[in-house]
Amino acid sequence: MANRRILWAAAVACCLAWSARAAEPAAPTSPPKPENPPASSPPPKPESPPPSSPPPTPAAPDELPYVYTNWKHFTVADGLPNDHIFAVKADGNKVWVGTENGLALIDKRQGKVVRSWQEKDGLPFQAVTAIEVDKKTGDVWLGLFGGGLARYSGGRFDHFNQFNSGLVNDVVYGIAMQGDNVWAATTAGCSRYNTVTGEWKIFNEKNAPMEEIWNYGVAYDGKDKMYLAVWGSGCLEFDLKKDAEKRGDPWKVYLDPDGEMEIDLYRDDGIVHVIITGVSPVNEVLWISSYFGCCRYDGRHWRGIYAHETGLPSDFTNNVKARSENECWFAHDKGLGVFADFPTETVVTYTRDPNTLRGKAEVFRNGKVLKTVDMERAVPHSFIINIDHDGSDTWVATGKGLGWAIGDGYYAGLKKDPDWMKGAVKISDPVPSSETAPAPAPAKQ
Amino acid sequence: MLSRGVWLAAIAAVFCWGDWISMTATAAPARPKQPVYVGAKVCAECHDGAHMGNQFNIWLQSRHAGAFTSLAMPEARQIARWSGIPGEPQQSVYCLGCHATAAEAEPWERDATFFAKDGIQCEKCHGPGSEYADEDVMMDREAAMRAGLVIPTKDFCVNCHVEKGSHRIVLGPAKFNLDDAWNQIAHPTPKDWKLEVNGLVVKSQPNDATGAKYTGSAACSECHFGSSSGYQFSKWRDSAHADAYAKLGTAEALEIAAKAGVKDDPRQSTDCLKCHASAYRDTAGYLDSYVDYEGVGCEACHGPGSDHADEVSSRTDPQVALKVKMKKAAREDCMVCHADAHGKPFDFDAALKKIAHPSVAPVVENEPTYKSPLNVTLRPGARELYVVCNTSNSVVIVDAAAGKPVGEIPVGGQPIDVAFTDDGARAFVSNRLDDSVSVIDTQTRKVTATIHVGDEPHGVLVDTARKHLYVLNTSSDTIAVIDIETLEPIKRLAAGRSPWDLAMTADGQRIYVSNMYSNFVPRHRPSVSEVSVIDAERVVADSRPLVNGANLIQGVATHPSGRFTLVTLLRTKNLVPMTRALQGWTITNGLGVIWADGKVDQVLLDQPGLFFPDPAAMAITPDGKWALVISSSTDRVAVVDIEKLIAMLESATPQEREKIIPNHLGKSSEFVVGMISTGVCPRGLLITPDGKTAYVANSLDDTLSVIDIARRELVGSIDLGGPRVITQVRYGDRLFHSANITFRRQFSCSSCHPDGHIDKITYDTEPDGIGVDPVDNKTLRGILDTAPFKWNGKNPTFSRQCGARLSCFFTRIQPFNAEELAALDLFICTIPRPPNYFRPLGAPLTDTQSRGRAIFTRTMTNDGRVIPVENRCTTCHFPPLYTDRRLHDVGTRVDDDTSGVFDTPHLSNIYDSAPFLHNGMAPSLEEIWTRYNPNDTHGISNDMTKDQLNDLVEYLKTL
């Protein structure tokens, strides 16, 4: 029991760090440097430079991405058990919301919270940091930040933790479903639970190329690969086919090739940093987030993505959720960043003005502002923690409330004279002044 | 004599045995260096001859060397039956655990030189020898022990030589005396020992002849083994011929040899070997696989067999007659040696009879095969009843109009339930033993396909409209959903604990699943069971209403109105001493009313003077007026007036419905309107679509009872064609499933041990105060040889366990008489262990399981500390039963225990026995070590990493 309390204390400390940041105004702060950088030596420098990324495709200034101008917020006042939203998952008309102190269910048709659970209601642990839905069985799997895993099935919770099951650690950051397997990214490695055979398997430094075992995220590409986002050990690709067939090494490691913690020595040579926070595979493309910038990998080209070049709110990125190979959403500490059209380097950011409490979207191309959109509300808070796409809509978990970006008329890519410009928003063209300058220089500059 | 290297190469090329005990080092992945078994003959390279005290020779003549072949005796089969072990003793890991060496080892742990049929060999007691067998290691005792050499104490012998109930029944009381036995097998090393590797090798034997050579009897055993060959190899191995070489190492032989002018060791004299071994009577020569140790082997009489063996091993069609045949032994062959042999008289005919080994399988006296019908279903569109017969592994088809069986379809092992497609064209039968579902074409009455499902499938249901087959995997706690067109699995839904039976609502929107076992509850808390409700449209878990205080929820039937579903249940008062039976308060039995909104009511079917124990199944008439419920241990069907039942509930206050009615013995008289007697132990119930007739499957008299529902009368009985004779086992089965032994017929043995297994709850059994010494129930599957019984080990035999003690503490009525007790004991003894779901017989361990085994058998901690012998897993959980059958304190005592010393439980199919530890406080295997072993008193576990613990758990599940 004592051990459990210590773990919980450590977990809560991390969680509270998020919350504390979330409670602050979105003041520019430098991302924290890791106290214990990875011990291993960096991989050798590439003998030949990596293939260059294709140059951006030109686009006319009036070709604009979709901008979400219709937002709905959910907070404690709307029935959420807590305002610190750690996870959100859309499943048809159900939207599951994990908070620092409970789980909530939103019925999308009714547009309201229809049920919530705290420990007194049977939820095995208060902090819900990850949610995944088993599409086959309809069961909902919850990652509990210090409480292990919970399965919500038939209206009740079943609890799996490091004491009563083979789960490697109770601090769970991420979950992914892969067939009948539940993968859980934890602070001491990644666990895989087969819901049919009941077998648990652990992936850690013993059987995976993990220099560090603090797993922040896990994702399935829908085909035959799993991706782990590991603090200090980059992104790990696990080939399910090779593993099943016991053929060769199933692991492939994506580390920061330059091995530098503070600078990105060689541009677009790999992931931007070994401390990564999330990975989102889609259509053979990997989108990766870190506290020091983000990146994209199409199987041949790496592309580093920094705030000062793109207009994204920050390099400090808590999570990532791709919608396609060309559109990806980043959860930053200073706002929501959307790489809306990769070929043309068109970005949309969403922030909340801490003074006026109004919402703001900005459209960037190649790091320069194209449009600024003022609206009644955008994200509920600028500290973004988690994102989930739901058809045309997107759900955004923040440090203070949940945002529902309603995507009526959504389109992918760019469009001239889009409909969203006709709504109740105030659109302004860029003013060349310091106020519209891109975000502060990142740590890796 | 051959060196170990030559052995390895030679035998690897010649021998191969069944999967279970392959002798060769099969293609195994690279593994860390670990000791492997090399076999007794490798030991013999140094440990034979007078200079080493003839140690090998002493073993060769011991009963240990014949332990394996003794399993071919008829008595062995009887013992196996008493132990609940089906099949050949020589292939049962339980028998081999004490009758062979390395039985539990993986194939890679047996070197090519290892020959399993040599029985209890040196390494059984001294540990696998590969790492200490080399002379440079063996010369240093300490180094050898570091490399794995074990010097056993007498205590080690007891692990196998402790008396087993099965052996006592067949062989009588054990005559084993440990001290005497220790002296008999004593093989001390002489003080003036000297090392002579291969000191007894006979070097003068010619070996360059052409033609067939001697290949050794081990090669013959490849084919001439097992019951199909009449146990020919085992018969030879048990004969004096097999000891002929070993005899040459005795003092008597030395004396005879000396008189004959043989100065050296007779085992090196070709004159002696001509009649005491196989290959010295001619100049044919021998292969490297041949060894003198085998004595007068098969080839001594039948001639050198290498060509025969070669042809056998190379042929592709076993039906084609062999060109090279072995010589038929003749009188003169025998007389060459036996005529005037050392002055001993020889009666040829008597000797021939003694060694006769016809290739004929022995006649096995089988028990009659009963039908044991468990369920009955009407085939849609036909007047055919499909009756699922559990022990005949078949479905008997009954013409409902004629009331006679008209066909029988063999299906898988232990079939349980049957369901049809709406058109009646196909039937699906769950086979509990085989973990499968048989698909029957009802036109041809043949099984057309078999579907592998989860562990111990039970109830089945077909949703024809959606093309779904639901199968309840009762030991996997899952519900398999299968496409009835492709027969491919679609998904597996999570169920409660042990899903048992299921029923669909009239509108086809919901499926209600009964879960037999209570959910895990904290200590000193009553049971809480649940019913799983499935959304049939979306095929997801819809809800899981809780039934407080209930367990063994089995029967389920939906009401046509859709307002509620009825389930059968027990309300076991396991938290107070069982002697409360006198107060009518040990186990009550009734119905659960699961309302559509998830609310639950409970009512009892018991009456104060006559209970309604083991309500195993139920059905509701199509008009919704009547519910018929079976009491399997009082052979009755209760007729429930549903309208009255619901009216009674709806007229009660919420508090009465929650607190009073669930325990009220007087309420059943308000809605139970009739009781109808059935055959013996009814288990399944069918109401015809017209609502007029009910058929009851009587599992222990092989009949169907026919009930006229309107008249509430038994109107007929249909004989399914089972044997008339009632064997002792069958009689015991009936006693086990009868509540007649209990005061006011409150419960039967099966109330706590359904189907001979367990109800998985913790009982306060003895009247020593409420809540004192609660103990987890134990399974009866394969229990016989695990005496003593009870967690405190106080009951040495079943006779005591089930005799007066049962009457005193549980049933509170006259105990079984001697005849009944004998039959009951026999039945319980023969309750088999189901096949292990996680490791099918003969299957190799997976990598994970193999790593777990290394943890289970480890002698060192992760940081290199030696684990004391008394704290190693295998010390107390000694194979093959994985119990040393002794009492130990592993530090699990809690405040309500009066002692911390408990009987070591066996680990067979341990995955199916949760919760664990003496009081069931560990719901999962993991918790035994993550929560309840803080001081490393239950094995050393706190140095283990989580992945090691996971591996260990995966291995334990294979035992």
Q: What is this structure, in a nutshell?
A:
With 445 residues, chain A is mainly β. Chain A has helices spanning 2-23, 240-245, 307-310, and strands at residues 63-65, 70-74, 85-91, 94-99, 102-107, 112-117, 128-133, 140-144, 148-153, 156-160, 172-178, 181-186, 189-194, 200-203, 215-220, 225-230, 234-239, 251-254, 276-282, 285-290, 293-297, 302-305, 317-322, 328-332, 335-341, 346-352, 359-365, 368-375, 384-390, 393-398, 401-406, 414-416, 426-428. The N and C termini of chain A lie far apart (45 Å).
Separation of the first and last Cα atoms of chain B: 39 Å
Radius of gyration of chain B: 32 Å
> How many domains, in number, for the residues of chain A?
1
**Bulk shape of chain A:** globular
Task: Write down the CATH topology of the largest domain in chain B.
Answer: Flavocytochrome C3, Chain A, domain 2
Largest sheet of chain B, in brief, is: 5 strands, antiparallel
Intertermini distance of chain A: 45 Å
What global shape of chain B is seen?
elongated
Query: How many helices of chain B?
Result: 31
CATH fold-level name of chain A: Methylamine Dehydrogenase, Chain H
Question: Under the CATH scheme, which class of the largest domain in chain B?
Answer: Mainly Alpha
Tell me roughly what share of residues is in helical segments of chain A. Answer: under 10%
How would you sum up the major sheet of chain A? 7 strands, antiparallel
- Portion of residues in beta strands of chain A equals 35-45%
Mean pLDDT of chain B: 91
Number of strands of chain A: 33
